[in-house]
Write a structure and sequence with these properties.
The protein is mainly alpha-helical. It is built from 30 helices and no strands.
Length: 529
């Protein structure tokens, strides 16, 4: 009861508005404008932010904090007695926000040993005081403030982490009620602060998941059916935490994260997002899903949770998430045969090959050329994964039969894509040769990476799919491939050269044995041609 009274006093102070007179005009309207101008001019004489000002601000804050602690200890059951000290403390926290205007002073702020006092207020009995501190931390760590101040930023962030900012922020997050507008804004500010800390110190992404229950909170937030700005931001933070961390990907998988993210995207299997913000959230959720599908154990969870079936349903519904579903399937099926087998078993081939033939749903987003290209590249990767994951039996026969039906139209399409990507890679190679003539030297690795970016990787996958078709020893397919090669004046040597370059650049990320196995397979294709 006493906490509620103190909070009411603080909210009243925060929300004080100009009261209207009986005739409807406000007090502000009755004030002489010249007086207002004079007040404005006097306020422009802002105190210079230097070490002296910093010390004054810190001293005033520490004094108000001490007063508040003493008042609460002296009158624990009489909120009226400590309400004023709470309002004064709120004002001092607000004044500390001016420090964001001088990030070069952050090392001095840390040396004054005020960080523990500020962070301690995140556990203050009055949630509004904790809300003030969250706002202060967001301002101090803002990306625009820290720009070009790398060293002061690092000093501040290290001090915050040393004093348990991550644990305190997440503990406070758990007690914030989003039915209260101030606390709802504080939820957003908390997530923004965590993002700012990660920006300065990327290791925070794993630290915050090791030390706190943030991931569990984020999963709870994206589960909620109703959309709001905080749900969108939660999806974004979750994607940031997952994108470069195998540890976080595994950790979330163990927390039933694959299932929760699938439930969140399932809300959009037959409807489109209503706003641009909601659309961005759906993209964030698919980013989370694709990151989650990097570790092998999460691919298994995805198949078990009927993720393959859900992605096919989304594709069939032809809504906005169509392309994202293809991307998720590509991640799930890469180097994971059980997902490929499930895909064939639940009749995914028809849907995938419709996309391969360019029969994709059109929308404003889909009309963008880059979107179309990315979709094309994903489908090619997906079909290549199918051939790599299904090596024999009736499933293999069903996959191969797709390239014979309708007068081998899919082989025609494959050759059309081969020519397009081949031309693109040739153009990039010529461009780089010209740059080298202009004395801009590039090493072999850089040249190869640039060619990969221009479409070489997709061209290599097309060559691998052609190799699978040729190696099947189906006379109709072989005759069609030979006819098309002749028509386009492409030789088998051209395809062998692409395969050889792919063979020579296979890395050993999955270990030397896997590299040897992959190279032997490509060598077999080269020999077959």
């Amino acid at each position: 009861m006493e906490v509620a009274s103190a909070r009411t006093a603080l909210k009243r102070k925060r929300n004080d508005a100009v009261e209207p007179f009986e005739n409807g005009t406000s007090a502000a309207a009755s004030v002489d404008l010249s007086l207002l101008e004079a007040v404005e001019k006097s306020q422009t004489a802002v105190e210079v932010l230097d070490l002296k000002t910093l010390k004054k601000l810190v001293l005033a804050f520490e004094r108000r904090l001490r007063d508040n602690i003493e008042a609460r200890l002296k009158y624990p059951d009489q909120p009226d007695k400590f309400a004023d000290s709470e309002i004064e403390l709120h004002e001092e926290i607000h004044r500390l926000k001016t420090l964001a205007g001088g990030p070069e002073l952050y090392p001095d702020l840390v040396n004054l040993n005020v960080i523990p006092s500020i962070l301690g207020l995140l556990s203050h009995d009055n949630v509004d005081i904790a809300v003030d501190v969250v706002g202060l931390l967001q301002d101090l760590t803002d990306e625009d403030v820290l720009e070009d101040n790398d060293e002061p930023a690092r000093v501040l962030v290290d001090a915050l982490i040393e004093n348990n900012v991550l644990e305190l922020l997440v503990q406070n997050l758990a007690r914030l009620s989003e039915s209260d507008p101030d606390e709802m804004a504080a939820v957003y500010a908390t997530l923004a602060t965590i993002e700012n800390l990660i920006e300065v110190k990327p290791a925070v992404a794993e630290m915050v998941c090791e030390r706190t229950k943030l991931m569990r909170w984020l999963l709870g937030k994206i589960k909620v059916r109703e959309f709001d700005g905080n749900k969108q931001y939660a999806s974004e933070i979750l994607a940031i935490l997952l994108q470069n961390s195998a540890a976080n990907q595994r950790r979330l998988g163990q927390m039933n994260g694959v299932d929760v993210v699938l439930q969140a995207v399932a809300m959009y299997k037959s409807r489109d997002p209503k706003t641009a913000d909601e659309e961005e959230m759906v993209e964030n959720l698919f980013d989370c899903l694709c990151c989650l599908l990097m570790p092998l154990e999460n691919k298994e969870r995805f198949v078990r949770a009927e993720g393959v079936e859900l992605m096919i349903i989304i594709m069939k519904q032809k809504k906005l998430a169509y392309g994202s579903a293809i991307r998720a399937l590509d991640f799930a099926m890469t180097k994971y045969p059980p997902a490929c087998e499930r895909f064939v078993d639940v009749l995914g081939l028809k849907t995938a090959f419709a996309a391969f033939m360019g029969k994709v749903p059109m929308s404003k987003k889909n009309k963008k050329e880059r979107y179309q290209e990315e979709l094309e590249e994903r489908v090619i990767s997906l079909i290549s994964s199918l051939f790599g994951g299904i090596l024999r039996g009736s499933r293999r026969d069903r996959l191969l039969s797709k390239f014979v039906e309708n007068e081998c139209e899919k082989i025609d399409r494959l050759m059309e894509l081969y020519i397009r990507y081949s031309d693109r890679v040739k153009a990039e190679t010529e461009r780089m040769n010209q740059l080298e003539l202009d004395d801009l030297e590039m090493d072999e690795d850089e040249r190869y990476n640039r060619r990969l970016e221009s479409g070489l990787y997709t061209l290599q996958l097309i060559a691998i799919i052609l190799s699978h078709l040729w190696s099947s020893e189906n006379s109709r397919m072989q005759a069609r491939i030979e006819l098309l090669l002749k028509q386009q004046r492409i030789t088998k040597e051209d395809i062998k050269d692409i395969l050889q370059e792919y063979h020579d650049n296979i890395g050993d990320v999955d270990g030397p044995e896997e590299k040897e196995r992959a190279q032997a397979k490509i060598q077999k294709f080269i020999s077959a041609f």
